[in-house]
Amino acid sequence: MLDEVKYLGMILDSKLNWNQHLQKIIRKAQTTFAVVRCICGKKWGLRPNMVHWLYTGVIRPSIFHGALVWWPKVMQKNTKIQLGRIQIMACLAIMGAMKLTPTAAKEVLLNLTPLDLLIMAEARMALYRLQPVVPKTVAGLLFIGKYVGDSILDMQLDHTIPIYYHSRIFNVIIDWDYWRNKNPLFPLDALIWFTDGSRANSGTWSGIFGIRPNRSLSSLWLNLPRFFKPKYMPFFNVCVTI
Prior knowledge:
This protein is of the alpha+beta class. It has 2 domains: 4-154, no CATH class; 176-241, no CATH class. It contains 9 helices and 5 strands. A 3-stranded antiparallel β-sheet has the order 3-4-5, with helices on one face. It has a two-stranded antiparallel ribbon with strand order 1-2. Helix 1 packs parallel to helix 4 and helix 4 packs across helix 5. It is elongated, with a radius of gyration of 30 Å. The termini are far apart.
């Protein structure tokens, strides 16, 4: 009978104390840092911002994998020390500082939160996401709320269940013969509008032209986001004109 098994990237041991899983992610992080240290030095190699990105964007997320399940492990003093060593390696690789420099000072300068606090924050965020759909009395959520909960999580949520209305009160007519032969075949009571938008040195212009009714309008927009101006403002002008 096996004492441990790997499932979804996490090592489950017979006692569920997460020791084997923790050792695995620590070895993986140390191996990755060993590779990074081979391509950077105090005065050569990767720039500090690149090393910082490798840590926060690649190495640190790999440590957080499955943290929702094994986060109670970080409450142990020995685990905090082991995770702190990884943070020390990251700070030294990014800053090139001396080893005797206080870790807390390096974390403040690099804006790096201790790993144990970030892992507990991951559990807290999971509790917040699951609140609208899962009762708080569920054993796992109750345990999270007891140790890493916050009074703000007890406030009333503004979560709203979306309601979709699929009925349409209008018809969309695409006359393919018109687009191929330029011979319009629209109903007599249809409103026919053409819209367009373009950007020039003077700003972003949107224009509309109507066949029925016979109207035309162009306007300059300066105080709206660039993607919003040429795409949506012509339709807004049509609605206002109608």
